[in-house]
């Protein structure tokens, strides 16, 4: 029996079989597998429970238990369990910020690394700020892997960072990405106009002393 299932540990317990064969029980052997790879192989004396730890969140494991008498180990009993979720350990990957217009930015990304998701990603939070290390002046939550941020100032630089969440909690933000919104550049006339200034100087008609 598997009980007290957490994100990184479980408790397993069992009862003695009715038929112990030719002799008394002298111990048990437990094997823990993940994707057909052995994680633990433990032999214990007469003890009917064991705590497994150092497990990975949101991972399916198989556990087998076999009893031992003086002739050796008997047939294994196998069961499986799924560890609980945790908040992601890593940020979203490949965050890209693009200037869409005078007042909007487009943000795209991919989920965190698979072994750092710690569960099912249910949403993403996009933070926008005026400075790289400044608090967010606006946050957006979406289930998609892209977002268009509107109503921004033209020709202004903004910093964007993204985090992922499972149903348990939020993961860390990734690195801030700075981007300017598009702006109208001053137009320079190609057809210049030349102006000539003419000055007329007169010589005084009288002498001054």
TrEMBL record:
<dbReference type="Pfam" id="PF00041">
    <property type="entry name" value="fn3"/>
</dbReference>
<dbReference type="InterPro" id="IPR003961">
    <property type="entry name" value="FN3_dom"/>
</dbReference>
<keyword id="KW-0675">Receptor</keyword>
<dbReference type="InterPro" id="IPR050713">
    <property type="entry name" value="RTP_Phos/Ushers"/>
</dbReference>
<dbReference type="GO" id="GO:0016020">
    <property type="term" value="C:membrane"/>
</dbReference>
<protein>
    <submittedName>
        <fullName>Receptor-type tyrosine- phosphatase F-like, partial</fullName>
    </submittedName>
</protein>
<dbReference type="InterPro" id="IPR036116">
    <property type="entry name" value="FN3_sf"/>
</dbReference>
<dbReference type="InterPro" id="IPR013783">
    <property type="entry name" value="Ig-like_fold"/>
</dbReference>
């Amino acid at each position: 029996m598997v009980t007290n299932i957490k994100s990184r540990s479980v408790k397993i317990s069992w009862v003695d079989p009715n038929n112990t064969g030719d002799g008394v029980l002298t111990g048990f052997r437990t094997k823990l597998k993940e994707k057909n790879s052995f994680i633990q192989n433990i032999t214990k004396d007469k003890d009917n429970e064991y705590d497994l730890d150092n497990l990975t969140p949101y991972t399916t494991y198989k556990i087998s238990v076999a009893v031992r008498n003086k002739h050796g180990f008997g047939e294994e009993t196998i069961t499986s369990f799924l560890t609980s979720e945790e908040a992601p350990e890593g940020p979203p990957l490949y965050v890209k910020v693009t200037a869409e217009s005078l007042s909007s930015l487009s943000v795209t990304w991919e989920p965190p690394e698979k072994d750092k998701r710690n569960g099912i990603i249910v949403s993403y939070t996009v933070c926008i700020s005026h400075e790289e290390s400044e608090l967010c002046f606006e946050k957006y939550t979406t289930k998609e892997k892209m977002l268009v941020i509107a109503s921004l100032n033209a020709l202004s630089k903004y910093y964007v960072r993204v985090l992922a969440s499972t149903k348990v909690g939020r993961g860390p933000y990734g690195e801030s990405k700075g981007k300017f919104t598009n702006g109208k550049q001053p137009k320079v006339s190609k057809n210049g106009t030349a102006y000539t200034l003419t000055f007329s100087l007169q010589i005084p008609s009288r002498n001054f002393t």
